[in-house]
Structures are given as C-alpha cells and as structure tokens.
Design goal:
Blueprint (H helix, E strand, L loop, with lengths): L1 E4 L14 E4 L2 E7 L14 H18 L7 E8 L5 H11 L6 E6 L8 E8 L5
Parallel strand pairs: 4-5
Antiparallel strand pairs: 1-2, 2-3, 3-6, 4-6
Helix pairs in contact: 1-2
Length: 128
C-alpha cells in the first residue's frame, strides 16, 4: 500500500510529484530545495541558510508522515559546487545528532539556482 504525504509546512511540489510517498515500512521524500513554504521563493543567503531551510522542509514532511529525522536511513545530497561541502556538513550534522544516515553527495545543477537539494528515505514509525 502506498500513501501520498503532503503538508502545508513544506513547499508545494513544483512539478508532477509528491512531497513524499510512504510505502511499506519506508517514507521516500522527494528532493527538497531551499524554498520557503510561506513565500514560495528560494531563501536568501548562502549554503548554511539554504541547507537549514531544506532540512526544515524535510523535517516537516517527515512529521506529516508520522516520522522524524532520527528515522532517516539514507540521504542523497546534490550540491551546486563541492567546494561548499564543509559548510554544508556543519549544518547537516547538527540535524542528525544520533545515528547518521548513509549518504551520497554529488555536484549537480539544481533547479531555481539553489545551492543544495536533498532527498531522503526514512523508516516509517509503526503505530502501537
């Protein structure tokens, strides 16, 4: 069984995709760029500000699915420029203070001129 996940606390998709889909024990979160859900615009600032916005968007989507960042098992990170890797990691690591997810990071062109895009796979918390 699959379930589409949506929250107003994260940006609306800018294409034909869901913010996330829960399937079986997993939640698959679509790539998030640093769009402020209130303004629909990329947040101003550098890699630190943009990474924080992306992770806050992912956090909101996971919460809408009944999960948390602690449940993330895998992340795919796209950076506009790998020279931003150190600053990105400083912010990223503050969001994953427990078990760090497995991760891949690549350099790529990102929509809307963003510096970072992140997609994650998380475990879905079971209801007791």
């Amino acid at each position: 069984m699959r379930e589409e996940i949506f929250t107003e606390k994260a940006p609306r998709p800018i294409g034909p995709y869901s913010q996330a889909v829960a399937a079986g024990p997993f939640i698959f979160v679509s790539g998030q760029i640093p769009i402020d859900p209130d303004t629909g615009q990329v947040v101003p600032g550098g890699i630190r500000e943009q990474t924080k916005r992306v992770l806050e968007n992912i956090k909101a989507i996971l919460e809408a699915a009944g999960s948390t960042l602690d449940d993330v098992v895998y992340a795919i990170v796209y950076l506009k420029d790998l020279s931003l890797f150190g600053e990105f990691n400083e912010v990223y690591s503050s969001y994953f203070s427990r078990t760090k997810p497995a991760r891949v990071t690549v350099q790529a062109e990102i929509p809307r001129g963003a510096l970072v895009e992140i997609s994650v796979i998380a475990l879905r918390q079971t209801k007791t």
